[in-house]
Amino acid sequence: MKSFIKIIDPGYYTSIQDLGRYGYREMGFPVSGPMDYNSFTNANKLVGNSSNEAVLESTLKGPKILFSSSCIVAVTGADVSIYKNGNLVELNKSFHCELGDILEIGVVKKGFRNYIGFGGGIFPEKVFGSYSQYHPITIDSNIKKGQNFLINTINRNLEHKKIKIKKLDFNQTIEVYKGPFWNKIENNLKNKILNSEFKIGSNNRMAYVLSGIDLKNKISLLSTSVMPGTVQLTPKGDLLVVMRDGQVTGGYPRILQVTEDSQSKISQFATGKLIRFKLVNMVCLT
Question: Domain residues for 224?
Fold first, then answer.
């Protein structure tokens, strides 16, 4: 049975995300989808959904939501206080919300993003095969106060949704593969990149900017294809990590590629966090 949730307060920045919008890069569309794939997947598992059901992804401070009917809910990701009708509920655990219940996600204590899964899924308008919000492909880039969104009310036994969820990893090490341009940069730049700390600067769903050491260069390139996790080296020495809503081409050297697990990891890091890169070998599946 279809019902709805009403957004009383959207939080700092909350958007609807499924696994993403694939097959449209040639049109300039980013993939979108969850910044923290692992927490996204866990939110769906906890409420018995398939892996591609849409969830709410909140950043820094979560939303306040009114329910019009019964629904199984789970919140994953950053350490945060979760309140149902003013009473605390647990992170990484399934729980029921009933008609008239109000769910409120607070300000994160550690981490940066949370994922709110609804049993049966949440259903905004599907655009180019995905529910993921990304303006101007979708009308809005994030949810707004007063909006109603359809949910699919399904009664499920929570006893079957007890899964073990690992705590978020806040170790500063970010694992990377060599990028297409890695072997073309000077050895002194390679040594600096692999033996230095970088500070996270401005960041959003499009990209993370990393700075902190002198990597100035005069490398000039034509634009080439980039993807989520691509690390580009700018002329002034900053590193740009492309994220889920990032552009599909870039004009800087693609020196590294962040592993999928480390993409999820870095998405839980906020401005000021120090990170280090660790070069790992790409495993080929046969």
Answer: 173-279
